[in-house]
Amino acid sequence: MTGKIKELRKIVPVPMGEAMQLLKANNGDVALCAALFKAKSISEICELTGCEPKMAAAYYEAERFDFNRTVSSIRDALYDKNYKAIEGLTKENLRIVLQWLGVVESDDFAVSLDFQQIGTVVETLSLIPALKDIASLVDKAKIAKRSIFEGYTDDMPLDEFVRRHSRLDDNPDFQIAYATIPLKVIVLKEEVLRHLRNL
After folding, report:
1. Which residues lie closer than 8 Å to 142 by C-beta, 6 or more apart?
2. Helix (H) or strand (E) holding 129
């Protein structure tokens, strides 16, 4: 049985326990078990994505039977196929949002609020229905930082910088944005890139 389990798992990424059950239920017929596992996976892919079995089978094969990658690829393909352009959304502004997300990743969310085109970032995010909440968080955090650092100059003592940063850290709007946005950078990038490739 061990040899047949290995043989089956070379064809499809079936979990060990499921491989044993399939082989027992089908008299050790590896080809039949592989076909049954593929059919079950294709059915689940159709259920999760709403696509037709033919599309699910083609993508599943293309993704070498990786279930999660197949679902992701089909969702992207369906998104692109049914994409409706959003008025006011431009490639240039989406690229600015990607630059800003790069600052969030490489530096810090607080630093990203000083991004030269932060206004464009907020406006662009607010145009995308799925990102309106994020736009609001960024805008509130930006307003909080500007208010707290109003009148501050680089020639002031370091203590003043620390004092103002402490006030910013204690600001509820900043706290919510700081706790949320850095954790969503990958998701935000994916959403922005979906729009960018369709414009």
Report:
1. 113, 118, 122
2. none
Q: Quick one: how far is CA 15 from the chain centroid?
A: 27
Tell me the one-letter amino acid at 51. Answer: C
- Candidates 93, 128, 100, 92; CA nearest to 116 is 100
Q: What is the mean pLDDT of each run of 10 residues along the chain (199 residues)?
A: 92 95 96 97 97 97 96 94 95 98 96 97 97 98 97 94 96 97 95 94
Amino acid identity, residue 163? R
Q: Which two tokens stand for residue 145?
A: 């930082």
Closest-CA residue to 33 (of 46, 44, 18, 45): 18
User: Is 142:122 a contact under the CB 8 Å cutoff?
Assistant: yes
